[in-house]
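Invent a record, attention on tokens:
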Amino acid sequence: EAATRGLVLSISPPILLERLAATSLAFGGQRDEAIALLRTAADHANTLGLQLERAQAELKLAELLAARSAPGDIAAASAFAARAAAAASELGLGGLAMEAAALAERHRFDLGSPQSAHAYPEGLSELQYNVLSAIASGLTGEALERALVVGAATREAAERVLAELGVRGPTEAQAFLDRHERELPADVPLTRETADVMASTGPRAFLFSDMVGSTALQGALGDELYARLLQRHDALVRRCIRQHGGHEVKRTGDGFFASFRDGASAIHCAQAVQAEMPVALPDHPQERAFVRIGIHVGQAVEMGDDLFGLAVSTAARVCARGHAGDILVSDSTRSSARTPEIQFQRYGRFALKGLSERMTLYRVPV
């Protein structure tokens, strides 16, 4: 109810504290310090994919920039206010949208269209499209909210819009996506700088795996038994990497980083791993290890036995977006692995930590 009225409670205490501290600084006349702190809060919210907190921080930032009116401040304030208004429109936050409109009227900003930066079928917003994709993947209720980092009111509002389009479950959601596939926005192309780096190496598929809840599992089993479980897990993943022509780059704590010649090989490896999960010890069958896997296709720079670059970081971020049992892949992976035996389910567009542009992700069933 609060969300539908535009009253938002932050779910990220550090960002909330930054906003409160900025408000206090502004009240005390320390406007420059407040602006700097609000920029930090907005960046943190963007990195975490928290649309509500980002919109709140950016609207306050727009207000302070407009009041300061230093060279370039009005243009920056207009841009921040426009982004906050667009987010408010997507999330159905009437109160926040009204604040943005009032600020724009006072300072004669042009907020532009409150639509998302990308056009989605049937006038859906980016958030509504992500809810649609999550439903198609079988997520409902609290599981959907956790995956998209939204509240119940936001989810329910999006589901009402989708219901008006005849989408009430996974079958209708997938059918909708299939009908409108050509209308869906493509990912932002690579920058010239990235393309130049990539030209020096060949395209590869990068796979990251991660054991979900490993710390709790170690606490339940104890160090010695957990080490035995980890050995079983490692043997399984390594066998699948070898069988599908992959190269183990390195272990990553309780996971692996591997490279493959193409996206299809990486996906087949991931499916083989998940088909044998969860892993457990015979004498402790209740303590089971699950993994999540992320795959991205791109180029990387070799340094000794290691690989690094934006594509490698992206693969790790894709993995981090998943849950136990997931195989998530980027759009570049899907494009390089279009074979009849591999199915792709749209998972949504997400802000991945450290990346400036949102990415379309897909879930691959085992």
Residues 1-11, 113-118, 188-201 have pLDDT under 50 and may be disordered. The chain is about 50% helix and 15% strand.
